[in-house]
Amino acid sequence: MKPRALLPLLASLALGCPHSHSGQQLASSAAALPATRPIAEHVYDGALKSGWEDSGWSPHDLGHGPASIDFSKQGGWMLTKPDLKGKFGGLMFRVKAPVGEAEFLEVRLDSRTKTIFPRIMVRADQKADVGDGWEEVYIPITELDPKNDPFDRIVLRAFRDMPPERVLIDKVAFVASGADGGAPPPSLIPATSATLRVDCRAKAKPISPLIYGIAWDAMAKAPPTVRSTSRRWGGNPTSTFNWQLGNAWNTGNDWFFENVQVKPVTTFFDENKSMGMSNALTIPIMGWVVKDTTSNSFPVSTMGAQQRVDDWRKDAGNGNKPDGKPVTPGDPSRTYIKITPDFDAKWLEQLKKDGRKVDIVILDNEPGIWNETHRDVHPDATTYDELLEKTINYAAAVRRAMPDAKIAGLAEWGWTGYLYSAKDKKMGFQLKPDRRAHGDKPMVPWVLEHVKAEADKTNTKLLDILDLHFYPQGQNTYSAVADPKTAALRINQVRGLWDRGYTDESWIGEPIYLLPRMKQWIDENYPGLQMMIGEWNFGGEAHMSGGLADAEALGRFAENNVYAAYYWTVPPAGSPAAAAFNAYRNYDGKGGHFEDWSLPAHASLKTSLFASRDKDGKHVVLVALNFSPDAAIAADFDIGSCGAPDKTTAYSYTGQGDSFTAEEATAANGRVKLTMPAYSMTVIDLHLASPIGTPVE
């Protein structure tokens, strides 16, 4: 329901990246390196050079000519020399990509230390055509290693989806420092300019409209102002919701463990219908729901003095003794009644009878922390087996009661919940007894595998969607703090959603790459499931760093084929967070929106670009982000692959209110050139004179 406190110690998860040698016959060798650039260190030239080791993780072939690399699934190749020494002027190599694949490659240096090196997306100005489809790339060391830190490896990876067709790489070498022999490297793009490109020739991928979802705020007095597409009824208290009492739940450790009456769930359905939003409904599967609207789980009158009490209910304690130690929970029946899957099935049947359409049924909320959020009724830590059993039993009941609804499962809170059970957390992630007892397999894929086995055995599709939650864990990111360091971290941590090469800057301290990881887990354990981010938020809603992080996240959901995503809770009206939604849902104030098909896009420097088109290929909408807090960027948008537009309009947002301002924009010779202000969102609306020829996927 909200970000959790930092966890102390975490054992690393190592997902294997085996080498693959297909024996593919290689051809079309790169030409010899020109003598005009003296080489200080040869790395790879038809084979690995002295001292260099292959550390690649994607399928590849080496040693018989140009290296052949499979960069699909954002794959990559790493070359390591543990004792590398010397001063270099830059890195050069040659690359031959499949026809039609332009910018896709990211290059960085790395080391065994915690030094973080810049990630350089190879730009057009860094490449030179050397014939036969080969391009020579030169990147100055001042870009790769601006602080002159020691390094011992080179990493090349795809920053976007690529086809499985192999990419050839050869002639990898470091150029001698200060000795370019009269052949200077390509000129660098100044810090105030950037080239951004959209590939309209590529086959577009569908974008689910449900990625623009929000949560239902039970305390709100008015419906949300953003044009969301879907709304989720969920959060911690829904684990204890009793529909038979007419809308009652327990507030859990969020507020003194009290049974309370809440805003009618019928309001949720009615508001959604009036605003054209679909419904995602969380149902309780923990096994207990409230028995009334007056009880509380830790009454001072019977359980003794406590650290705090509710000022409005003096007998309701917070479940902690005056010294801070937890009060031992009493009999759950003091506050709750026990339920079975039939309880939820009857609720769904009643909703259906009342004409309430449920599009997604979510199996509870963050079971990995039930023993914290609902320790009054579920003090025991959730295990692999408990989550599996409840997922199977309640999903089967949902399928019988509401066969047309999509069922979303697991709904884990975050990083440790993806990999371990609550029992593992309680006993220690180094010991991880529950995970060890289940083949040392991370919890989410283990549960998926066994739910799939049960589904096959009973010929019942128990799940349609894998649902996980995502919150940044960096210090102060999920807050109103907006100092330069926190603001930059807030934006950077969005990379945890998609970037395999990004090491999370928090206690996690390792790559998360949640969306590719979810896809991998699905493909390996329950093929055919869709992906959902049931809760997400990057904090700083009133600051541009928060709005930019949100806009970046929405773009990544579109790119990565996420089926549904729900912001926690509602972007405040007039805030940069609301503007992020408006960039995709209402940039012109008249319902102008990001289109329904995603196109590959490339951005450089401190920018991102997301591209979309309509089904007919007559309308293209781009969303561009400038992450620099103090530098405007002279942006050159390459739209040549889209054809000539007969109408071009740009819209800009810089942090005031949540509305975009129309800007002058002219398309000429396949380019749109305009200035992106510091810390800004820019939308470019292109109506094309002729439709794009490439069909959608």
Topology:
Blueprint: E1 39-44, E2 53-54, E3 60-61, E4 67-69, E5 76-80, E6 88-96, E7 105-110, E8 120-121, E9 127-131, E10 134-140, H1 141-144, E11 153-158, E12 167-176, E13 193-198, E14 205-206, E15 213-215, E16 230-233, E17 248-250, E18 259-261, H2 265-275, E19 278-283, E20 288-290, H3 300-303, E21 309-310, E22 313-317, E23 336-338, H4 341-353, E24 360-363, H5 370-373, H6 384-401, E25 406-412, H7 415-419, H8 422-427, H9 433-436, H10 443-458, E26 465-470, H11 484-492, H12 514-525, E27 530-536, H13 544-559, E28 564-567, H14 576-585, E29 597-599, E30 601-602, E31 607-613, E32 619-626, E33 633-638, E34 645-653, E35 661-663, E36 667-668, E37 671-676, E38 680-688
Parallel strand pairs: 13-33, 15-16, 15-28, 16-19, 19-24, 24-25, 25-26, 26-27, 27-28
Antiparallel strand pairs: 1-12, 2-5, 3-4, 4-12, 5-11, 6-10, 6-12, 7-8, 7-11, 9-10, 13-30, 14-29, 17-18, 20-23, 21-22, 29-31, 31-32, 32-38, 33-37, 34-35, 34-38, 36-37
Helix pairs in contact: 4-6, 6-10, 10-12, 11-13, 13-14
Beta-strand percentage range: 25-35%
Overall pLDDT confidence:
89
What would the CATH topology of the largest domain be? Answer: TIM Barrel
Q: What is the CATH architecture assignment of the largest domain? A: Alpha-Beta Barrel
Number of strand segments: 38
What does this 3D model show about the protein?
- The protein is of the alpha+beta class and 697 residues long.
- It folds into three domains: 39-188, Jelly Rolls (Sandwich); 209-294 and 330-473 and 508-536, Glycosidases (TIM Barrel); 597-688, Golgi alpha-mannosidase II (Immunoglobulin-like, Sandwich).
- Helix content is 19%, strand content 27%.
- It contains 14 helices and 38 strands.
- The strands form eight sheets. It has an eight-stranded parallel beta barrel. Strands 1, 3, 4, 6, 9, 10 and 12 form a seven-stranded antiparallel beta sheet that branches.
- Strand 27, helix 13 and strand 28 form a beta-alpha-beta unit.
- Helix 4 (341-353) runs parallel beside helix 6 (384-401), helix 11 (484-492) packs parallel to helix 13 and helix 13 (544-559) runs parallel beside helix 14.
- The longest helix is centred in the middle third of the chain and has 18 residues, at 384-401.
- It is globular and about 85 Å long.
